[in-house]
Amino acid sequence: MMRRMTHMPFSLKFLRLLPLLLCLGSPSAFALIVTGLYDQEIVVQGQGDAERIRAYREGLTAVILKITGEERWLRNSAVERAIRDAQSYVQEVSYRTSSGALEQRNFISVRFDRALVDSMLNAAGIPVWDQNRPTVMLWLSVQSPDGRRELLSADSDHPLLDIVREYSRLHGLPLLFPLMDLEDRRQLPMDVAWSLDDEAIRAASERYGADAILSGRVLESTGGDLVGLWQFLFRDQVETFDSFEQNFKPYADAALDRITARLSSHYGLIRLATPLPVRLRVDGVDSARDYVDVLQYIHSLAVVDTVSTALLDGGSIELDINLTGNAFLFTEFLALGRDMQPVEPFEAGAEQPVFHYRWVR
Fold this sequence. Notes:
Layout: E1 4-5, H1 12-23, E2 39-44, H2 49-68, H3 77-84, E3 90-99, E4 104-112, H4 114-123, E5 136-143, E6 149-151, H5 159-171, E7 175-176, H6 182-187, H7 190-194, H8 198-205, E8 212-220, E9 226-234, E10 237-245, H9 248-267, E11 276-283, H10 288-300, E12 304-313, E13 316-323, H11 327-337, E14 340-344, E15 354-359
Parallel strand pairs: 1-12, 5-7, 5-8, 11-15
Antiparallel strand pairs: 2-4, 3-4, 5-6, 8-9, 9-10, 11-13, 12-13, 14-15
Helix pairs in contact: 2-3, 5-9
């Protein structure tokens, strides 16, 4: 269903400025937007029909994994049917060739139709994880077989970093890595990081503004085994789990799969059969530019169907919004953006839920 945005008349001054402001384009990009979720590039042997159909199926499988966050959904009967008929979901295709020192490789880039894919998943009752995603701060401590320990930074030369970066790319999981500058080393000494002290880790992570924190430690034994412990901090919850593997990829992937499933289930959207009407009051709207930015921001949220201006009152506006998901998910998306801060809890006893926020961009 296409979302639409409507406006009620407001002050003459704003009306004169509005067309110009709209021509300036959308507000600056949000840091949490993950692009390319419905695009996939696949290596192919040629441009024949059989190879193209294979690539479509492989590509749609990868896209569904990115937008659901859980591999288990690939075993859903509706998803299996869709993958077999992947060509029906293709919107755009292009080919390219990459020539290396040893070989030439051919690629097909496929863009899948977002509306069709989302509709298929929604009909199957599978939540869709929107492009507005939480960032995860990643603290990784490693102990080598000789007993030396290192807290990895964004610039560290360690195979674990390449593995988690590739996971981030393939799954659309925004990861942040510490700088390990003087402030990080002061806030989180090696022995404290190794102990997975959740209070110290939260304090050290504040400067990065992440929505969730994953910290892990891994000991490389002289026999080649990896013995690790992970801790995931999300909201006020602390989840700890161990891991035993023989190489770094399954060690990292198992932990990342676990937190990706947790986050996608929290933020995933199943569209309501009947939109939920809510009222949103926003303070701090002091200019026509603020007004336009607020409307565009609210309308960009996947959980929002329609937006209309109900009241303009000085530096505040009230919006009537129809949600495609529940009210809790709406507040979670607002929290992700960080452009609005709650002023007071919504009025649960009102005829329709009322939310009160302040625009702080």
